[in-house]
Amino acid sequence: MSFKPKDLPPTAVQLDMADMVHVDRAVARRILAGDEAAFRELFDRFFPRLYRFALVRLNRDQETARDVVQQTFCNAIERLDGYRGEAALYTWFCQICRNVISDHYRKRQRGAEHVVLLEDQPDMRAILEALAAPTDDEPDTGVWRQQVRRVVEATLDALPGHYGEVLEWKYLDGQSVEEIARRLELGPKAAESLLTRARVAFRAAISDLAGASDELTGSLGQSPG
Amino acid sequence: MEHESQDRKSSPDIVASLIRAAGRRTEPPEDAYQQVLAAATGAFREKVAERRGRSWILLATAAGVAALAIAFLLQWNSNTAQTQVAQVARVIGTAELAIDGDWKPMTETGGYLATGAKLRTLAGGGVALALDDGASLRLAAATELQIDGPRLVLLRSGTVYLDTRAILGTGYQIETPVGTARDVGTQFELHVADGSLGLRVREGRVEIDRAGNLVNGSAGEQLDIDLLGGVSRTSIAATDTAWQWVETVAPAPDIDGQPASVLLAWVSRETGRRLHYETPGVEARAATVILHGNIVHLAPMAALDVMLATTDLEYTLVGDTMEVRFRTEL
Question: Is residue B8 situated within a structural domain?
Fold first, then answer.
C-alpha cells in the first residue's frame, strides 16, 4: 500500500479539481478496457481512504468497515460504465460507500444508528480555533484530539491526487522539499509547487468546513413556530 | 519555498499545526487490504470479461452514428423577441457564456438569460438554471446548450437534468433525431455523446416517439438509444450514484424562517429518497420548528445534518427512505 513515484499521475504537479476529473475519466476508461495496472493503482489509492470513510460511519467497527469497503469496490466496478466524470472518482466511490452503509443498517434493522460527521457539526470552528491556540487547561484533551484527528483525516482523504501524502511527508516525516522532490522524481521547483498547491487545497477544504460551521453557529438556531 | 515562507509570515501555520496535531492517518489492517483486494480484483476481471463478451453488439450499434443535436422542446412559444427565459441559480467550477462569439467566464449567480443564450460547462463544472415556469434545469460537466426560446433548449452535447416538480401536467416534450420524448411532472436526465442518447428517469414517466413507435421509460429505468433505434434498457434506483452530480449542483432554497419540513422535503427530492415521519407528532413538529440561517453551498445531505443538529429532530437513512423522528440523544 505504500506510495511510489510511479503512482503519481503525470499532471499531479498542477492538479486542480477539473484536471482531476479528466484524470479520473481516463483512469475509468483504462480500467474498463481491462488495464489491471490501472485498477490496482486506483485500488491502492482509494482503499485506505474509503476504509477510513467507512470506519467513522460504522462506530469504528473494523470488520464491518472491511466488508462495506469490499462491497463498495464490487459495486463501483460493476457500475463503472456509468461514471461520466461529473464528480471526482473518489467522491463517486464515497457515494457508493454511503449507500452500502445505508443498506447495512437497513439489513440489520438498526434504525437508531445516526452518524453525523464531525465536519458537518456546528462546533467545528471552535475545534479549529482551539487547535490554533491550544491551552494547558484544555478539558478532555483526548476527546478533543480524537475529533481533530477525524476532521484532518477526512480533509486529507478528500484532497485531490496525492496532496494528502505530500503534506504528511512534509509535516509528519519532516522531509524537505528537496527530499520530496527526489521521492517523486521531480525537480525542486515542481515539488515546491506541488507542496504549495497541497497546502492551499488543505486550507481551502478546512476553511470551507469551518466557514460553513461558523456561519451556522452564528446565525442558526431554532425557535418554536 | 518562497510561497510557503510568505504564507508563514502572514499567519500562524494552521496547516502544519493541524496535521501534526492529528498525527498519521489510520492505516487499514493488512488482512483487510488483502481480502478486499482479492474480492475487488475478482469483480474487475469479471467486469472486463462481461464487457468483452458484448463488445460486438456495441460495435454494431455505434457504426455510422452521426453527431446528434438534442432539442428540448419544452413548450413552444412563438415569441421571437429576445426575452428572459431563465435565471442562473448556481455555478460550480468553470462555466462559460458566449458573448459576441467569445466564451466568457460565468461566475455569478442571479443573472438572467435571454433567448439565444449559449452556455457551456467545462470538466468539473456545473450550472443550475431556474426556468421561468419553476422547473430546474441543470448542466453537468462538459455540457453545451443553447436556449432557443422561452421554453426551447438545444442540447448540443453533454448531460442535463430536468426537474419539473412545480408544474405537473405541463406536458414537456423533448425532440431528438431519434425521436420525441414527452414527460409529465418528472425528474429525468438526458445524456448526449458520440451519437447516442441516454435517458434516465428518476420519477414519473417518459414516452419516446420514434416515427410513431412509442418507447416508454418509467421511473427507475435507464434507456440507451442510438440513431438506428437500438434501445437497451437497464434499471436505476432513485438513489443511485449516477444522480450524484445533480445533488452537487442543486441550488439550495432559502430556508431562513422556514419550517424544518421545507428543508426535509427539499433534501428528500434532491436525493431521491422517500420522506417518512416516524409518527404524526414528528411530522407536526417538523412543520412548526422554524430554521434560521442559510445553507448556501451546502450539499443537501450536509445541509440536513447541520440544520437538524439545531433541532430536536434527527433522521436515519434506511434503504431509499429518510426516516425522521425525535432526537434520542440531546
Answer: no
Question: How far does chain B reach from its first CA to its final CA, in angstroms?
Answer: 48
Chain A contact for B6 (CB, 8 A cutoff) = no
Closest to A57 measured CA to CA, from A186, A150, A177: A150
Contact present, A96 and A72 (Cβ < 8 Å):
yes
If asked whether residues B189 and B101 sit together in one domain, one would say yes
Give the SS3 label for residue B291.
strand
What's residue B301's pLDDT? 87
- Distance separating alpha carbons of residues A186 and B102, to the nearest angstrom: 37
Set of cell numbers at residue A201:
487545497
* Residue ending a domain, choose from B219, B243, B267: B243
In three-state secondary structure terms, B218 is strand
Same domain, B115 and B238: yes
- Name the phi and psi angles at A60, rounded to 5: 60, 30
Looking at the structure, do residues B81 and B38 belong to the same domain, yes or no?
no
DSSP state of B293: S
Q: Note down the domain range covering B313.
A: 252-326
pLDDT tens column, B278-306: 999 999 999 999 988 778 778 888 888 88
Give the whole-angstrom CA distance, residue A26 versus residue A15.
14
Contact call for residues B249 and B127 (beta carbons, < 8 A): yes
Alpha carbons A77 and B204: distance in angstroms, whole number: 29
Collapse the DSSP code of B92 into the 3-class scheme (helix H, G, I; strand E, B; otherwise coil) and give the result: strand
Provide the whole-model pTM.
0.48
* β-sheet bridge partners, residue B313: B326
Looking at residue B31, what is its pLDDT?
A: 87
> What amino acid is encoded at B300 in this protein?
P
> Looking at chain B from residue 265 to 284, which residues have their Cβ under 8 Å from any Cβ of chain A?
none
pLDDT at A156 over 50: yes
Q: Is B29 helix (H, G, I), strand (E, B) or coil?
A: coil
Q: Rounded to whole angstroms, what are the CA distances from A161 to A6, A45, A177?
A: 13, 9, 18
* Min Cα–Cα distance to chain A from B190, Å: 13
A204 CB within 8 Å of a chain B CB: no
Is position B6 within any domain? no
Domains belonging to chain A, first-starting first, are: 15-115 (1.10.1740.10), 116-219 (1.10.10.10)
Establish if B287 belongs to a structural domain. yes
Q: ipTM value, please give it.
A: 0.72
Both B39 and B74 in a single domain? no
- Partners of B302 on chain A (C-beta within 8 Å) are 120, 212
Report chain B residues whose CB lies below 8 A from the CB of A192: 1-4
